Amino acid sequence: MSVERIQQHFRDSAAVKLEALETLSMPIAAAIDTMFAALANGNRILACGNGGSAADAQHFAAELIGRFERERPGLPAIALTTDTSVLTALANDYSFEQIYSKQVWALGQPGDVLLAITTSGNSANVLAAIEAAHEREMIVVALTGKGGGPMQEVLSDTDIHVCVPSDRTARIQEVHLLTIHCLCDGIDAMLLGED
Questions:
Q1: Which domains does the chain have, with CATH numbers?
Q2: Which own/partner contact pairs does 174-177 have at CB distance under 8 Å and 24+ positions apart?
Q3: Which of 9, 114, 153, 190 could disulfide-link to 133, CB 3.0 to 4.6 Å?
Q4: Is the dihedral angle over the CA atoms 72, 73, 76, 81 positive or is it negative?
Q5: Does the keyword field hold Lipid biosynthesis (predicted)?
């Protein structure tokens, strides 16, 4: 393996993050405000995605329920990606497209937030979850890349779209992880004060 190839990954990642710094700071700040307001009102955050985005949904929920960098009471978050019995039952009895929307219908309440993660904006089951969230009067925070894909068409004016300015899945996922850490840090700062 070429050291130069490895170093190029670092350079590419840094370049996308620096470009994203300018375009994503405002929507991330809006997402923090929205999530904190929901949590402060006794609501919760549901998160979903596929593949690496499923792992990101779980990572986010774990940081809220446990802690990010400072001790605090656990915050209500659910990764819709984790219950294999529910996922396989819904995929088998209905369709893979409904594995998240059925859960949003069952668990989501007005005022909750859906964190919808898809690098392309094309994931049919995430799009269906967004539609279900709207029907349940929830706000959506969408993390995408590659221009946002069809997700742009299903988001409402009250939703927040954090679209990474890249077409490379690995770079998008790296910025999604940084965004998740920004969300957790921002929620903690609003809850506990700046440290």
A1: 3-192 (3.40.50.10490)
A2: 174/13, 174/16, 174/17, 175/16, 175/17, 175/20, 175/24, 175/145, 176/53, 176/56, 176/117, 176/119, 176/143, 176/145, 177/56, 177/59
A3: 114
A4: positive
A5: no
Instruction: Judge if pTM exceeds 0.85.
Output: yes
176 annotated among ligand-binding-site residues: no
Tell me the per-residue pLDDT of 117-165, one tens digit each, with 9 for 90 and over: 999 999 999 999 999 999 999 999 999 999 999 999 999 999 999 999 9
Q: Is 2 annotated as a binding residue?
A: no
Distance CA(65)–CA(47), nearest Å, equals: 13
Question: Is there a binding annotation on residue 51?
Answer: yes
Q: Is 41 annotated as a binding residue?
A: no
Q: Is 33 annotated as a binding residue?
A: no
120 is in an annotated binding site: yes
Tokens representing residue 65 in the block: 């329920």
113-117 and 139-144 as β-strands: parallel, antiparallel, unpaired? Answer: parallel
Tokens 């470009």 appear where? Answer: 19
C-alpha triplet 36, 42, 43: angle, nearest 5°: 70
